[in-house]
């Protein structure tokens, strides 16, 4: 795996984390227990921090980044990802906050200062603009995203199951290492 230090700060991994050897994880990044980072992910915690909760997965080709502090935004925009979050292939997350039990569909973009509450599905290819708040319990689709409908009971049950599927998969990969 490619863990890199930036300005003396190295990524911190909890137990049972899987990071593919082709991924780049650098700087001020903390990754929670049983989480996984898949091939060709670029996670750059250089000008702010990235925090990834437990049992979350960041799938192939995704980009995770942050925004630096400015006079307008003295704290900058860190990237905060909660527990049991599934981030689909080629997603871009930039200086936003994601709660728990979320599915971000393939190719979606979530921009600075956006807040995604718990139990949300963001459809593939969607764009969450800067500062947008997505309320808990809904499917959001489009560019820019719009609230499409409430999540079904089956979808709500699927969110932690999706995370569990990736915990099992990363355990298989760790066993082969």
Shape: globular
The portion of residues assigned to helices is 10-25%
Low-confidence stretches: none
The radius of gyration over CA amounts to 15 Å
CATH architecture: 3 Solenoid
The number of domains = 1
Termini distance?
11 Å
Q: What is the CATH H-level superfamily?
A: Hexapeptide repeat proteins
Helix and strand run: EEEEEEEEEEEEEEEEEEEEH
Structural class: mainly beta
The CATH class? Mainly Beta
Sheet-strand content, in percent, reads 35-45%
Average predicted confidence as pLDDT: 97
How would you sum up the major sheet? 12 strands, parallel
Protein architecture, described:
The protein is mainly beta. The protein has a single domain, classed as UDP N-Acetylglucosamine Acyltransferase, domain 1 (3 Solenoid), CATH 2.160.10. Helix content is 14%, strand content 38%. It is built from 1 helix and 20 strands. The protein is globular. The mean pLDDT is 97.
Question: What's the topology here?
Answer:
Elements (H helix, E strand, L loop, with lengths): L1 E3 L7 E2 L4 E2 L4 E8 L4 E2 L4 E11 L4 E2 L4 E3 L13 E3 L3 E3 L4 E3 L2 E2 L3 E3 L4 E2 L4 E2 L3 E3 L4 E2 L4 E2 L3 E4 L4 E5 L2 H24 L1
Parallel strand pairs: 1-4, 2-4, 3-5, 4-6, 5-7, 6-8, 6-9, 7-10, 8-11, 9-12, 10-13, 11-14, 12-15, 13-16, 14-17, 15-18, 16-19
Antiparallel strand pairs: 19-20
InterPro entries: Hexapep, LbH_gamma_CA-like, Transf_Hexapept/Carb_Anhydrase, Trimer_LpxA-like_sf
Protein name: Gamma carbonic anhydrase family protein
Organism: Rheinheimera marina
